[in-house]
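Researcher: Can you fold this with adenosine-5'-diphosphate-glucose in place?
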Amino acid sequence: MRQSSLVVVANRLPLDDNAAPDGACEWRRNPGGLASALHAILAPTPATWVGWAGGVGRAPALPDVGSLRLRPVSLTEDDLRGYYEGFANSTLWPLYHDAVQQPVFQRDWWETYRTVNQRFADAAAEVAEEGAAVWVQDYHLQLVPRMLRDLRPDLLIGFFMHVPFPPPELFMQLPRRVELLRGMLGADLVGFQREQAAHNFAQLARKLLGAEATDQTVAIDGRTVRTGAFPISIDVAEMRALVTRPDVVSQAKQLRHDLGQPKRVLLSVDRLDYTKGIEHRLTAYSELLRDGYVKVRDTVMVQVAVPSRERVESYQELRDRIEGEVGRINGEYGRVGEPAIHYLNQPFGRAQLAALYQTADVMVVTPLRDGMNLVAKEFVAAREDGSGALVLSEFAGSAAELEQAFLVNPHDVDGLKETLLRAMQADRADLAARMAAMRRHLAGHDILVWARAYLSALDDTGHLATLTGVA
Ligand code: ADQ
């Protein structure tokens, strides 16, 4: 069997054609993002990616994607229910997002989560060469670092949490809190999106395990685990290349035309998820319409909400509520041929998304809680001409970097209305200055910079660098 000096372990493989039975659309935009950043770093030394290929039953052998090898992990229908839809997405996901939706604690999910984590750890142990670096991703696989250390103490193990890591008040609710924390602490480096998460982690390590911990290190079992913030980013060059493509430019013009050449286009692009604040946003927008601050003829709102985790009941209920509300708003304020909200519940290609970003005047990104939020960064990267306004939730990780956005507390519907109006009415010079500052930041902080920063921190002895040129 072929072994690699770098192994990535994530719930999903970075494939295009791996639609899950539940239509899952995760952060692993396929095959871009992390996979292409790794290609750029590791072209001479092929990495292996361990993950679920989508679907149930025995996973097929898969061809390499460029220089990246794929090692599929198979899941049964029961695994999918207990591990993915259950413990990961009905217990951990809501709890880590401020419990904006009540987390479900169903006891039998834990055993499946543990078994599936072991399967991922076994697969990683199999494909990692002696002394390799293994980079484990996200809340689905929190037990893998420790399982892997037990199997292969020779490995350099990294863990990165893409979602928020909650404060003790929330984490303490978890029946299996000690095992989950110990699982992550099997890593040599635990990375988060924000400093606050590393702080929460240190507090929990002290409180639950009696470990000596600072916001940078946790001492456990005679080892020192390093922690830190590594804010993820996007492939800025890819987005810039897309928005300058003539077909994308004309698609953007066509979109504006199809929308009836309004004075202003407001745009939101989200996975259909209760953390994304879609309902609060609709309430704010409908009140602006009701009170006459926004007129359907001048302004249109486009809400793209790609289906997600469709077999999980809370997601089905959310979809029904949102579609009911969009219907109500359009029924009340729309005119023949002029809906107040264009609602698109479908996935888009990268070029189509780029055209949408170009069409918008105001991008509205208002999650109630979000680890980072890549949509906000994609919008900024797409604005080659430096125009456009970004309304951004204070509770998205990206708010710590995109400080020149119109920042808002999405729970405060009046504040949200007021901020939307400010963004719509801002003068061009103000908008251009804000956008220029955000674009400067992004230019120096793309996904490649992120991957390099994480991997060189993981590899503090320089061992991997000699193999791959990471440093
Ligand atoms: P997500 O919660 O999935 O990611 P986000 O960061 O916004 O959220 O990424 C969504 C991705 O999906 C973006 O790249 C976007 O372009 C794409 N997308 C959205 N709608 C789409 C559509 N209709 N068609 C096609 N593509 C679409 C999790 C965390 C985030 C964190 C990321 C990365 O919840 O906080 O930023 O991981 O770490």
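Model: Folded with adenosine-5'-diphosphate-glucose in place. The first strand starts at residue 4 and ends at 12.
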